[in-house]
Amino acid sequence: MQNPREIGSTGIHVSAVALGCWPIAGMTSLDVNHTDSLATLRTAFDLGINFFDTAYCYGANGESEQLIAEGLGRQREQIVIATKGGLHWEPDGSRVFDARPATLRRQCEESLQRLETDYVDLLYLHAPDGTTPLADSAGALSELLAEGKTRAVGVSNLDLQQSQAFHATCPVSALQPPYNLLQRQIETDLLPWCRSEGISVIPYWPLLKGLLAGKLSRDHQFATGDGRAKYTMFQGEEWEKNQDFVDRLRQIGEEVGKTVAQIAVNWVLNQPGITSALCGAKRASQITETAGAGDWTLPASAAQQLEEALRLRGAPVAPGAV
Length: 322
Prior knowledge:
TIM Barrel, alpha/beta, two-stranded antiparallel sheet
């Protein structure tokens, strides 16, 4: 396993780079196919990644969880699986938030069936639904923890007050927010709280939906169906500022022999309180690149250049979450 780090105080050790398994579900990522998805999973494992993050709603019918079972079922005791409950898709394609205890239990049981296992290592509340008291959702996950259906409990997409309310009923071992070079809101509240409580922070979007991967040219045209086109960060003045920032990252990378994506993920991994970074991939080549983001730090001169690049970029418009 590459650069193992412990989730909270659970005794569960994970690789610094985790594979985010949303893209292989093919919901919003284009040109996804079964063969490449399985190859991505197996390549991640072969590279020393042992941490695989999925969810009940990753796929209209749980395709992501099913792929993990198919691709890595024989390695079950060698990998750490995180999944989430509280979100699902209706037949018409609409997304439903439902954090009621009965729903969380049912979705957990279905996830276990899809994953072909009798436990997951980490079970998150994917998001609050705005109606169900957080204490009720926390109580349901606490019961699943006591029953051995999960080894640890986490929360995703909760603010500080919500996280504290959940934690008061069910101890939280991990928190999953968006976090990257250009989206740093958690530094003011969630990250310090997690550090004080010994809670792991395992962020998604370390590459900001591919923006910080350095692969999108300034004149890139998003294909029909590519969900990224709706985000402000890919439009107008924000897009130009972000392209300027990526150009500066590229220059730094050329000096130290790293790619833009590796620099972006490495920065996340070296922030205090960060345990692992969820790097989504739909191709083996993508996870091969980001797997090389751990186990090193930028030289002081390059780190100073990165800070200057951030200063020149200025505060970006928040792209949202979930």
